[in-house]
């Protein structure tokens, strides 16, 4: 659409974005995952590229086409996403963690398809914690400006502020996913962008428009 003017707000900047879900294998045919569509992260990548940034998008499994001018690296699991982010981190000015990274993965991946056992009506899968990619990036020497997302169903702003502090990041974008028309898998979103010294509400809109506004806000902080 030609209505989107490019103001060059991120000219000369390098931006690294994670998007989509991760998939954590249980056995050769099964995995744990979530309903993230990747739409918000892809919209941010598109918006950042339109503002002149050199964008790298590390994407979990999702059915979306790569935005124009964006370098895309596809990954499956949280560990793969972490490795791809680590390999791309040098010289980045901005990191946006938009992926819905699975918090846990199966402690081991069965080599063969798991079978039901006669007489067993319960089954338990041991899980271990995945690395927190966003917190890890924020801890690196010379870390870029770090932006996270917080999908919450209650106490949205309070929980988001805690995440901002706990992860040592510069901005958190909170969204209320208790409303199923917004956030996960939806085309629309409504968010609050929280940093140490500011709080900006962005009203319900398409993810493309929210992304454009967020990129304008973030670029004013760089
Ligand atoms: N995140 C990440 N790596 C993880 C978990 C989360 O990089 N292993 C990032 C997400 O991309 C998001 C932010 O951290 O930008 C917050 O994710 P969220 O799931 O809301 O927070 P958690 O810290 O995982 O806390 P919880 O799920 O318990 O609310
Ligand atoms: Ca989580």
TrEMBL record:
Listed name of the protein: Coenzyme A biosynthesis bifunctional protein CoaBC
One cellular component term from this protein's GO annotations in UniProt: phosphopantothenoylcysteine decarboxylase complex
Residues binding CTP: 97-99, 103, 113, 131-134, 149, 163, 167
Transmembrane intervals: none
Entry EC no(s): 4.1.1.36, 6.3.2.5
Organism (species): Aliidiomarina shirensis
Entry keyword set: Decarboxylase, Flavoprotein, FMN, Ligase, Lyase, Magnesium, Metal-binding, Multifunctional enzyme
GO biological process: coenzyme A biosynthetic process; pantothenate catabolic process
GO molecular function, one term: metal ion binding
Part of the full-length chain shown: 189 to 410 of 410
Domain DNA/pantothenate metabolism flavoprotein C-terminal: 11-219
Taxonomic placement: Bacteria, Pseudomonadati, Pseudomonadota, Gammaproteobacteria, Alteromonadales
Function recorded in the entry: Catalyzes two steps in the biosynthesis of coenzyme A. In the first step cysteine is conjugated to 4'-phosphopantothenate to form 4-phosphopantothenoylcysteine, in the latter compound is decarboxylated to form 4'-phosphopantotheine.
């Amino acid at each position: 659409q030609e209505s989107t003017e490019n103001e060059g707000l991120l000219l000369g900047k390098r931006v690294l974005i994670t998007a989509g879900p991760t998939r954590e294998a249980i056995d050769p045919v099964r995995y744990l995952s979530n309903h993230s569509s990747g739409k918000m992260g892809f919209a941010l990548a598109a918006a950042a590229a339109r503002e002149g940034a050199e964008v790298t998008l590390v994407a979990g499994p999702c059915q979306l086409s790569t935005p124009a001018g964006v370098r895309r690296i596809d990954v499956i699991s949280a560990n793969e996403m972490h490795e791809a982010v680590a390999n791309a981190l040098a010289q980045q000015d901005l990191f946006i963690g938009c992926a819905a990274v699975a918090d846990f993965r199966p402690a081991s991946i069965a080599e063969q398809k798991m079978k039901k056992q006669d007489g067993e009506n319960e089954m338990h899968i041991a899980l271990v914690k995945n690395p927190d990619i966003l917190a890890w990036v924020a801890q690196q020497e010379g870390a870029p400006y770090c932006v996270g997302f917080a999908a919450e169903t209650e106490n949205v702003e309070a929980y988001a502020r805690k995440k901002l502090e706990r992860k040592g990041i510069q901005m958190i974008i909170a969204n209320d996913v208790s409303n199923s028309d917004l956030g996960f898998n939806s085309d629309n979103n409504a968010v609050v962008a929280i940093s140490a010294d500011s709080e900006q509400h962005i009203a319900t809109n398409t993810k493309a428009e929210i992304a454009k506004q967020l990129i304008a806000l973030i670029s004013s902080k760089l």
